[in-house]
């Protein structure tokens, strides 16, 4: 376990007046709160029960926790790359554990002590090519019945991954299984649900498109949970692709726009009905690889943002891999869904 000092006076940050009002302004700039130095920070979520922000460093094989009440940051080294993870409903049996999407399968694990509380999930190989391909972005559905998660193709030309639904194998809830819900995907990102739980937003990042599907949590088979695909938004910045997303309480999509150029990256608030960008959060220091975002804090009005330092020049992007945040007015997030255990 390691710890990195937080980069701001956290109590003062929490008590400060909102930095920007999304109902009156169109842009704002985030603040670096933690020099996490992640190779590929990803999958950030707010744990409303533990009152902490939780994320992973995929390439660094690390799991991170930041407690808001104390500002304490902890990271844990893992034996495999972790693509994403899901929060669990409260349970003595699974206390401290998460549903983890490893590079090659799903498992319920306590990352602080590496206790494996289920076997690896059963089903077809989620990563038949092996590294550098792996599982990537994932999220629990609104009913807590499925963890939807897809893969990353490892930049291998013409190789394609799938998106899977991971769930309990049977009513004993002792083993997990997974089945595909989408095929022929390069890089799964932006998995997030509308407030009513009936729409799933999704991006195959190289297409630069975010699309929407009707989501049926009660579908009898996993191949029927998604239907009615339609376009929502296309990134209009040269070299940029859509990465991780979250949805606010009003149903707007907040997308981390991964930028390959030198002009810096940003998080965009998108109206899914029109596809228009209505608000942007910029990085203060040219950080070009913004990867994911979530709303958290006591009032769900702080936007937390992960970034990546992989392959970046520290003299040009000194805070690449850090965690950023911005306190907002006129908007609130939603509580993260939990996998039912």
Mind summarizing the main beta sheet? Answer: 5 strands, mixed
Count of DSSP-assigned helices: 1
Which consecutive residue ranges, at least 5 long each, have pLDDT under 50? Answer: none
CATH architecture: 6 Propeller
The CATH homology group name = TolB, C-terminal domain
Helix residue percentage: under 10%
Q: What overall form do the CA principal axes indicate?
A: globular
Strand content: over 45%
> How many strands?
26
The CATH class assignment is: Mainly Beta
In total, the number of domains comes to 1
- Overall mean pLDDT: 94
Q: Write the element-wise H/E pattern from the N-terminal end onward.
A: HEEEEEEEEEEEEEEEEEEEEEEEEEE
Question: How far is the N terminus from the C terminus?
Answer: 27 Å
Q: Which structural category fits the helices and strands? A: mainly beta
CATH topological fold name: Neuraminidase
């Amino acid at each position: 376990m390691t710890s990195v000092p937080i980069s701001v006076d956290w109590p003062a940050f929490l008590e400060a007046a909102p930095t920007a009002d999304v109902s009156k302004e169109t842009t704002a700039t985030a603040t670096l709160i933690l020099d996490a130095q992640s190779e590929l920070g990803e999958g950030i979520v707010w744990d409303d029960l533990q009152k902490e922000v939780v994320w992973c460093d995929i390439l660094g094989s690390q799991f991170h926790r930041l407690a808001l009440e104390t500002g304490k940051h902890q990271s844990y080294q893992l034996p495999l790359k972790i693509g994403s993870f899901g929060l669990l409903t409260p349970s003595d049996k699974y206390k401290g554990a998460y549903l983890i999407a490893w590079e090659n399968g799903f498992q319920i694990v306590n990352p602080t002590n590496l206790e494996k509380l289920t076997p690896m999930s059963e089903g077809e190989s989620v990563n038949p090519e092996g590294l550098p391909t792996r599982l990537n972005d994932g999220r629990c559905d609104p009913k807590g019945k499925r963890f939807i998660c897809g893969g990353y193709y490892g930049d291998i030309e013409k190789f394609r991954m799938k998106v899977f639904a991971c769930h309990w194998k049977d009513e004993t809830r002792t083993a997990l299984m997974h089945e595909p819900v989408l095929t022929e995907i390069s890089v799964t990102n932006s998995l997030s649900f509308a407030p009513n739980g009936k729409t799933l937003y999704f991006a195959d990042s190289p297409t630069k498109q975010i699309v929407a599907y009707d989501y049926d949590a009660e579908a009898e088979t996993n191949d029927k949970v998604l239907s009615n695909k339609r376009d929502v938004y296309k990134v209009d910045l040269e070299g940029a692709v859509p990465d991780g997303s979250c949805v606010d309480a009003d149903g707007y999509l907040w997308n981390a726009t991964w930028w390959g150029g030198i002009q810096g990256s940003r998080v965009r608030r998108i109206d899914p009905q029109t596809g228009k960008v209505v608000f942007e959060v910029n990085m203060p220091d040219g950080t070009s690889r913004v990867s994911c975002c979530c709303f958290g804090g006591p009032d769900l009005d702080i936007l937390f943002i992960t970034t990546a330092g992989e392959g970046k020049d520290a003299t040009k992007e000194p805070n690449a891999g850090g965690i950023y945040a911005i306190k907002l007015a006129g908007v609130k997030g939603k509580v993260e869904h939990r996998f039912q255990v």
